[in-house]
Structure formats: structure tokens, C-alpha cells
Amino acid sequence: MPWPPVAAPPPLSAAQLDERRVAGLASYKSRHYLEAVRSLSEVAKVRPEDNEVKDALARSMDQVKALGSALKAFNEGDFESAKRLLWPLRTQDKDNEDVKELLFKSYFNDGVAKLQSEQMAKAAEAFTDAVKITEDREAQRHLQFAKRYGSGATDLLAKIYVKHLTPRP
Fold first, then answer.
1. pLDDT tens, position by position, 12-66
2. What is the C-alpha to C-alpha distance for residues 140 and 130, in angstroms, rounded to an integer?
């Protein structure tokens, strides 16, 4: 027996489109280009005459394309490559929030991987760099842990701590 067809989501109401437009333009102006593309894509389809949305979407998509290789490396867990690809983008545009966030997560996740493989000095370096980008409490806590357990997680509590670390998505 064939499966029933998947129903398409109902079209957005005018109010929902207005909300997405406002959120998307705010994301664009605050240099959160990934979110701007998500919010503005639907609006641009339904309202092709909205030049402000089309312009913001096109510029946001250009910024997202520049992140392509770095995003791929990050998603594949290749944090070293992601960091190497992100630094030129960060240098070009220090206010690009997507680059800043992805760079932070690359250092953070690299630090987690290094802790879990008991490379404490390299983990401390990664968390130090992460904290320089964003003052994140969890990254600071992991940095302190890496410094304290410089020779590896020797006690049971430290081993449990390291085992249950989770990288940032």
C-alpha cells in the first residue's frame, strides 16, 4: 500500500511573513547572515517586489557562501581546517557574527576533542583561544580543568567530567 503524500506546510499568514521580514532584516543588520537567509528566503518567495528583502537576502547569501568551506569542515569535525578557513574571514569583517560564532565553536570543540584524547596542553590552548573570542563560562571552566589536570584526567571524577563533555553544534 503506498504511503500517503506528505502534506506541505500551510502557507504563512501576512502577519507571519511580516514577523519573518522584521526578524530577517534585524539579523542582517546585526550581521547574523545565516539567520537572515533562513528568515528572508520565505519572504522573498512570497513578496518578490520587496527590494529591501531581496537586497538583504542577496548580500546575506554572499556572506553565507563565503562560509561554505569552513562550515563543511566544521560539520565534518575538522576543527583545525575550519579555524584556518575562518581567520581570513574574521580579519576581513570583525563584525560578522556568524564567523565569530563558528570560530569560537571550532576552538571550543577542538578543546573538547583534545581533552577527551588527554592532550591537556593543546586543550588549554584551544580553550584559551575560544575565551579570547567570546567570554564563555563553560569554555573558561574547561580551560581551568585542562590547566589543573595537565598530566591527564587521573581521578574518577575527572574521567567522568571528560567523558561527558559535549561539543557545540
1. 899 999 999 999 999 999 999 999 999 999 999 999 999 999 999 999 999 999 9
2. 9
Q: How far is it, in rounded angstroms, from Cα 150 to Cα 116?
A: 13
CA proximity to 25, closest of 43, 6, 3 = 43
Phi-psi region of 77 (alpha: psi -120 to 50; beta: other; left: phi over 0): left
d(CA 11, CA 13): 6
Contact 24, 42 (CB under 8 A): no
State whether residue 134 is helix, strand or coil. Answer: coil
Residue 2: phi and psi, rounded to 5, are -70, 150
* DSSP string for 33-88: HHHHHHHHHHHHHH-TT-HHHHHHHHHHHHHHHHTHHHHHHHHTT-HHHHHHHHHH
Backbone region of residue 79 per phi and psi (left: phi > 0; alpha: psi in -120 to 50; beta: other values):
alpha
Q: Per-residue pLDDT for 127 more than 60?
A: yes
Grid cell for residue 125: 590552548
Write down the residue that cell numbers 529591501 correspond to: 52
Is the torsion defined by CA of 74, 79, 80, 84 positive or negative? positive
